[in-house]
Amino acid sequence: MGDQMRFIVEKLNGEPFRKNYNLISFDSLESLQLLQLLSDVLGEIDPKHAVDIREELPEQTAKRMLNLLGILKYKPPGSVSDLSAFRQGLVTGSKPVIHPVLHWLLQRTSELKKRAYLARFLVKLEVPAEFLQDDAVADMNKQYEELMEAFKNLHKECEQLKTSGLSTAEIRRDISAMEEEKDQLVKRVEHLKRRVETVQNHQRMLEIARQLRSEKEREESLAQQKQEQKSQLFHAEQRLQRAQLQLKEMQDAVADSKPESLMKKLEEELNFHSYLVTEKLPQELESQKALEYLLQKVVAEPAMTQSDLRALESEINEVNAQINQLTEKRIMKYEPTDSKFSMYRQQASIMSRKKEAKAEELQAAKEEMSSLERQLQQKSSQAHELGGSEVLTEDEFKQYVNKLRSKNTLHKKKRLEIAEITAECGILQRTEELLRQRHEAIQQQLEAIEEKKGISGYSYTQEELERVSAVKSEMDEMKGQTLEHMSEMVKKLNAGIETKRASLAPVLKELRQLRQKCQELTQECDEKKIQYDSCAAGLESNRSALEQEVKGLLEECAQEESNYRYINCMKRSLEVQLQRAKEEMKACVSPDPQQRRKALREQYTRMILEQENLGKKLREKQKVVRENHGPNMQQLKMWQDFEQLMECKRECFQKQQNQAAIGQVIQEGGKDRLVL
Length: 676
Known about the structure:
mainly alpha; Actin-binding Protein, T-fimbrin, domain 1; Intraflagellar transport protein 81 homolog; cytoskeleton; cell projection; cilium biogenesis/degradation
């Protein structure tokens, strides 16, 4: 607790709090001041919580703090029963509750700031299921979830960009390259504009191209929506098929069953589960516990040698032989008088084993069925991803054929309607083109008349004036409405202020009295604090002396414990060495030649003899190599000379062949000239 309070005081005295506390002044804070301090720390993490707790009710303060601590994933110490005590302590401002919260918050302030920022956008609003039945609410909820996912992706990209370490020089180079590309694109656009301006009706063509691009974008968005709708329809059909299968199975089960059979089936399931819970699972648990105990015992024991293992095996064989003898004696003793009971016992044991085997088979079959169901779901999802569909039953296939027939007739009707609409659309397009041509001709005539009269641009100016006057009238009307609305709001605010003043008058009177009491209590508190400081200083000095003494004793205890462990390890190693020496002496003294061969001395003598024989062989081989070294080197030099000679012959032969080929080509060229 002392280290915790020191850490809290150190953090509160630093930026951005600057509280100027010491251990005594922090420990003497009242519950209301502690709650305000906790609210200030929470306000530093989330600015929405930077409020004065005197302006809100204690229940509201506790609820606000609990909500934010839940968002920040604070886990109070203790079990579930302590949660109510934690809430109560947070409401009353208890020190054992507030101090751990402050310590946890001040340890990870930067991390919690980030978590609080993300919680503003990622804490999902729970919408009741009955409200989601409305299409508008469902669409709004879906859009809300999509925006939340988009925010997650953008935040991840932002964090990746922060940690990617892009330098400003690279960004500047990218910006300069983009500006150059922008200048080139602007020049190309201007060049294309100059080329297009010479073409007749270029404005109309540009408008048509713009419309075409917008229609293509709309077509792409519609295709995407169509694909999404198809996938949603497929998932909905799958859910419907599963629900229909479940309904059919339940209907068949209900139609073929009676209350007695249902009760019998439930009793069988209950008996099976009760058998698993009361007999099978406890036995398995006990066996696992026993195995765990044995393994822990084996791990705790020191390492065993081969002789220890042999001794244990012999002991196990002896115990098994004794068990067999005792069982035979027991059978011989009780068999004449208890033959019937022994037969029943055997039958009961056989039935219990059969029961256990059937239970295990049933459990394995259930696990296999669940795994097959998971595989079926995986295969259906893979088939959907590859563009396939689920296997249909006979009734579903008939329904599918009937649906196809109805769709075929509907398709033929729609095709006829589309043909009529396309014909009508062609007529309307031709009519529109004729009307546009007439409009252009009339517009040209009007412009010519305006030029003759000396008022060119009159019609365009008239249209602009009418449009501007209409916009001005709308703006005037909106201004009048806003002024009326503002005047109403001012009246309402004034009325609210007056009511608040009237209601706050008695509260202000009480506040003056409370301030006087507060001054008296602060004087008394200062006197008590002086007394407390003097007492705490004496206790602090005594505590520090005791801490030093305890620290020295702990270090001495740790040193003695390490010495004890070292001596114990040395003792074990010496015992092992002594045991090996005893075994070696026993093997050396033993009259059995097999035992003597196992002794280390015999093994080392054999190894020494083998190495000596190997050294003799290697020395003889070295002598042979030295004797044959001179002739072998001469033979090697002769082979190298022979290889050089053959290489020279090969090069001479290649040169001769190349010269012969060149002479033949020259002769053929001369013959061609003579022929010409």
